[in-house]
Automatic annotation (TrEMBL):
Species of provenance: Paenibacillus alginolyticus
InterPro entries noted in UniProt: Bact_solute-bd_prot1 (IPR050490), SBP (IPR006059)
Claim: NAD is one of the keywords in the record: no
Domain of life: Bacteria
Pfam families linked: SBP_bac_1 (PF01547)
Signal peptide, first to last residue: 1-27
Protein name: Extracellular solute-binding protein
Keyword annotations: Cell membrane, Lipoprotein, Membrane, Palmitate, Signal
Transmembrane segments: none
UniProt keyword Membrane present: yes
């Protein structure tokens, strides 16, 4: 690597390790704790009138509106007007490719993928943010508070081409849920482990013969959610390679004995009709139908599904009560852990052709202050929110978060980096707020996401994809009984021959490289 992280990032990360001030050394904390202001007072860049061009993304659920209050609030605090354009067909990647290829780039670009940022950055189209870190005192302090999010924004060449984010990723938090009303009616307690889960599902199947008591969507993808409770890993974003923080090594989950234990349970569930016979192909709508018609009672999905189901279902069934369920351990006394899914790679990038680079850096530094955090999360005090005894609440009578976003533009893409998720939670039901409070107790550690070189990406796109396809075919057959679990060792040998070590070594090399850069 030609250049490691500059001294500012190194110092920031070193201080974080020594002081232990980071909340990312273990499980996540509640959003309100995440947004605690740094010890030192944050400073806002001097107000300077500016207009920056910006290729953004317009979400279909809250499409771009030039009259949103958020643009006015940002200008009032920073002096900056954003001249926003966006792809008319919502295909952001295509628009980015065409824009960069043309050489006629705006000042700022928005991406939903860090790989995209790394690719364009290494082609010379983007600014290395770390070259300007001394001009951004607030971002510099922010990196002390959030070293994992900082490290995960670093490219394979030791540079940073996308501004790191934290907070809004809570929208991706996933956990187990159960029908409390059905459990209560049948005298059931939430299961502490998968043995108890099996017993509970059997009881529900007997009480509701036409049901499939446990259901989820997208087939084998959700093995990632179950795997941590078995002391193993299955990360779809890292080709099933995961970092064992206890042993300090990279491993391939689907060949481990603990992974086999999970597949053995699922095979038993399948044979006894405790999960749907077509679980491999169930899409979101089919899953929703199961969960809303008393045909499934236990599931794993985004935590926001608590309100997604409860609010409409109670209109026709007032007793309907989907609640957070503590994660069942893979075995008695085992880890009760969920996969760490509460992160986003989305972010803003500064183009190398911009004539406003220094001014943009000052502008972006504002978003890493407590003042910026409050602004992009809650809006303007007295207009969009009020505060009493240190507790904020929205003033508008918003039906839900989506309604708030449509009317204010707050938390829309391109308007934030650091986000106070308590803003969204304030519009949620007491059940969902309670779910968030409980969920943090079952977090596994955030997985490192080391940046890969182009050569490493080629290994993943060839060997890695072959592994994934072979794995999927074999696991589907194991669960459905088309292949005997006594053949597990043969399956492991098959994957090893394809190149398990080759793929694991890619992540090991990338991780080691990031650690050298940190030092």
């Amino acid at each position: 690597m030609r250049k490691t992280l500059n001294w500012a990032l190194t110092a920031a990360l070193t201080v974080a390790v020594v002081s232990g001030c980071s909340n990312q050394t273990g499980g996540a904390v509640t959003p309100s704790k995440d947004v605690a202001a740094p010890a030192e007072k944050t400073t806002t860049a001097p107000l300077k009138e500016n207009t920056f061009t910006f290729l953004d993304y317009s979400n279909a659920s809250w499409p771009y509106n030039k009259d949103w209050p958020v643009w006015k609030y940002i200008k009032e605090k920073t002096g900056v007007t954003l001249n926003v354009s966006f792809p008319p067909d919502a295909l952001l990647d295509n628009a980015l490719n065409l824009t960069v290829a043309s050489g006629n780039m705006p000042d700022l670009l928005y991406t939903q993928s860090k790989k995209t940022a790394d690719k364009f950055g290494q082609q010379g189209a983007l600014v290395n943010i770390l070259d300007h870190i001394n001009e951004m005192p607030n971002l510099k302090k922010w990196m002390v508070q959030f070293p994992a999010d900082t490290q995960n924004a670093i490219s394979a060449d030791g540079k940073m081409y996308v501004f790191p984010n934290h907070g809004i990723g809570e929208t991706n938090r996933m956990n187990w849920m159960y029908r409390e009303d059905v459990f209560k009616k049948n005298g059931l307690k939430t299961p502490a482990n998968w043995d108890e889960l099996y017993t509970v599902l059997k009881t529900l199947k007997q009480a509701y013969p036409d049901s499939y008591p446990m259901a989820w969507r997208q087939g084998l993808l959700y093995l990632r959610n179950f795997a941590p409770a078995f002391g193993t890993g299955s990360d779809d974003s890292a080709n099933d390679v995961y970092f064992d923080s206890d042993k300090k090594e990279w491993r391939y989950g689907p060949i481990e004995d603990n992974f086999k234990k999970m597949i053995t349970y699922l095979n038993k569930f399948y044979k006894e009709g405790l999960i749907p016979p077509d679980f491999l192909t169930i899409d979101t709508k089919q899953w929703q139908d199961l969960m809303s018609t008393d045909r499934s009672f236990v599931t794993a999905d985004y935590i926001s599904r608590v309100d997604f189901y409860n609010l409409p279902m109670r209109k026709q069934n007032p007793s309907y009560n989907l609640l957070f369920m503590p994660t069942p351990a893979g075995w008695p006394g085992g880890p009760q852990k969920n996969a760490y899914t509460q992160f986003l790679e989305n972010g803003l990038m500064v183009t190398s052709t911009s004539k406003n680079i220094k001014d943009i850096m000052h502008f972006m530094d504002f978003f890493y202050t407590k003042e910026g955090l409050d602004l992009v999360s809650w809006g303007k005090q007295g207009e969009t929110y009020s505060e009493e005894n240190g507790k904020k609440k929205f003033i508008g009578n918003y039906a839900d978060v989506s309604d708030m976003r449509k009317k204010t533009g707050l938390s829309t893409d391109g308007t934030y980096t650091w986000f106070d998720y308590d803003a969204h939670l304030s519009l949620s039901s007491p059940e969902l707020q309670d779910a968030y409070k409980q969920a943090v107790n079952y977090d596994s550690q955030q997985q490192p996401r080391p940046a890969l070189t182009q050569q490493e990406l080629e290994v993943i796109s060839t060997t890695g994809q072959t592994l994934l396809k072979t794995r999927d075919q074999a696991l589907a057959k194991f669960i459905t009984g088309q292949r005997d679990l006594n053949e597990w060792n043969s399956y492991v040998d098959e994957l090893k021959k394809i190149g398990v070590d080759k793929v694991v070594n890619v992540y090991k090399a990338a991780y080691d490289r990031s650690q050298v850069a940190k030092k």
